[in-house]
Amino acid sequence: MADVLAVVEQRDGKLRGVSREGVTAAVGLGEKLGGSVHALLLGPPGISQAASELGRFGAEKSLLGEADLLSDYHPHRYAVAVTEAVKSGGYEAVVFGATAQGKDLAPRVAAMLDVPLASDVTGYDVVDGTVTAVRPVFSGKAFATVAFSASPVLLSIRPNVFQAREREAPGTVEAFAPQGLDSGSQGVRIKEFQASGGESKDVAEASIVVTGGRGMKGPENWEVLEDLREALGSDAALGASRAVVDAGWRPHGEQVGQTGKTVAPKLYIALGISGAIQHLAGMRTAQTIVAVNKDASAPIFQVADYGIVGDVLEIVPRLAQEVRKLKAGD
Amino acid sequence: MNIVVCIKRTPDTETRIRLGEDGVSIDPSGVKFTMSPYDEFALEAALQLKESRGDGEVALLSLGGEKTQETLRQGLAMGADRAVLLQGDPGADGLATAKVLAAELKEMDASLILFGMKGADMDQQQVGPMAATILGLPCATAVSEFQVEGEIATCHREVEGGLEVLELDLPAVITMTKGKVEPRYASLKGIMAAKRKPLETKAAQGAETRLMVKELAYPPERPAGRIVGEGPDAVTELVRLLREEAKAL
Ligand SMILES: Cc1cc2nc3c(=O)[nH]c(=O)nc-3n(C[C@H](O)[C@H](O)[C@H](O)COP(=O)(O)OP(=O)(O)OC[C@H]3O[C@@H](n4cnc5c(N)ncnc54)[C@H](O)[C@@H]3O)c2cc1C
Ligand SMILES: Nc1ncnc2c1ncn2[C@@H]1O[C@H](COP(=O)(O)O)[C@@H](O)[C@H]1O
């Protein structure tokens, strides 16, 4: 058997974007391994709608684990449930999303199954029956191809890298009731979730990222960035350089780079950012990079596909205006 | 309270990476190695906790080669009390590393075990929660700050869209990300004192490696970019290129 399981995520009953990408990546792997693709969705009762969507991306069977004990992400309970699903299905490979949850969950499952994990993967292949994975290392300064000599193979995929593809087949949904769930806390209690506010997407998940650096001059100027983000639509999020976070202008949750988040959006717009190596570490795998900087020799221009030399405070409002014009014409 | 901080020796983030001749590792010549940045956050948190409580010890643990002693001395100079070096090769298999560390951590018997969220070399972001799972200890990852009261650590964890607050019963494992505190620099006095602090070296109990680097390559070249123009008047052309050429809008 060479079946592949995609472990997917929901929030408030809605599938996360990376989940569709995860199923698509699992389909590609399943084709190479010659096995079927299943998906596993865990959460509170009442999320079957999200599970039924998984078939459209290629999951022949979606395992739906709805339980009060799985309402909130609890690291131990989720790890127990996923481990059980992997064991009982005899999967050859398991694909997670490298989200905050996936990065927390996958290593625990790996330890429970006693198999290694390749995290934050941007590509994979099967060579003579051995699965290999490509992953950025040294903060994106190199790419490593790693080969597994263990089964099942565990991967977590970097969000926004694998493009989700819809398929014809609808797929089935099956209930999954993990046996090993314990109502005890296992020494971990989730107390609260403080949403960072606003409707905007998280910078690690967004397909467009607008990042402000010290060149923005002060926190009061984020209004114009917010306006640009709004013009770009609901797939856009705000990011910040470390200089800006350290100055207290923006929260650390928005920081992109070595000691912040790694992002791989379709479009990355760097505004008033010099392009220090630790900043590039977090965004160099973006598909298209735009930079605006008043200094034509700023290193950010070396990675940017398109650059404008000039004052961000003059250019950003104009950019928002032009984007709105473009969208109005659609 | 006894705290252990697991630290890794990694290339300084400023360093230019050159590939080695073997095709699977970097050329270490001319590379400045240092403590992985997230491990500095973990060590700083440990030192502050010890200072605020006025008791206990901060021990360092690392799996690495001979030269890792330098990195451990760096941590001792920052204020840790003692260090243990497990001599061996930390490869690409995070689980193998976690097993080696976990075996030693069991002996060290700490109330709190801190890790960096991720190592600045293989960027795996996995060794901490793996070690915790092996040890059967409660664990929170990507924690920006925490407080300890009695036998409970309250952790603030960064997730997409907000902050999660969770409680761990001690003994527990926490992996640290950047928070509000800046890691301290070692003082001259600290550097002198570090020379006399205990640094124990032993052979690592090997765990089987089942994830191997087959090839290391430079990132795909980005096609040369271009300056579209100067000032706000270039914006129209930029937006056109983004739509028609890059298909990004
Ligand atoms: C271990 C370590 C980890 C780090 N981690 C991170 C990280 O995660 N993320 C990160 O971002 N950094 C990180 N850094 C810091 C990094 O080295 C840089 O200091 C930081 O990225 C600089 O931020 P910046 O580009 O906003 O500011 P600056 O470097 O000050 O650049 C500001 C830029 O704005 C331009 N500018 C000024 N005024 C205007 C204007 N009116 N219009 C247009 N352009 C203007 C300037 O020409 C300049 O290029 C890390 C550093 C270390 C040592
Ligand atoms: N060889 C090692 N020795 C000690 N600690 C390590 C080692 N490898 C990883 N760690 C710890 O695990 C964290 C995460 O590493 P990684 O999972 O490799 O990204 C690091 O920040 C260290 O705290």
Notes on the protein architecture:
The complex is a heterodimer of chains A (330) and B (249). Chain A is α/β, with parallel strands linked by helices and 330 residues long. Helix content of chain A is 28%, strand content 28%. Chain A has helices spanning 17-33, 48-54, 75-89, 100-113, 222-232, 242-246, 277-280, 300-303, 312-328, and strands at residues 4-8, 10-11, 14-15, 37-43, 61-66, 93-97, 117-121, 123-127, 130-137, 142-148, 153-157, 172-175, 188-195, 208-212, 236-240, 267-271, 288-293, 306-309. In chain A, α8 links the parallel β17 and β18. The longest helix of chain A is centred in the first third of the chain and has 17 residues, at 17-33. Chain B has helices at residues 37-53, 68-78, 94-108, 127-135, 188-194, 235-244, and strands spanning 2-6, 9-11, 33-35, 57-64, 82-87, 112-116, 139-149, 152-159, 162-169, 172-176, 199-203, 211-217, 226-230. In chain B, a hairpin with a 2-residue loop joins β8 and β9 (162-169). The longest helix of chain B is centred in the first third of the chain and has 17 residues, at 37-53. The termini of chain B are far apart. Classes of the chains: A alpha/beta (330), B alpha/beta (249). β13 of chain A pairs antiparallel with β9 (162-169) of chain B, so a sheet runs across the interface. The structure holds flavin-adenine dinucleotide (FAD) and adenosine monophosphate (AMP). The site of flavin-adenine dinucleotide has 28 residues of chain A, from α6, α7, β17 and α9.
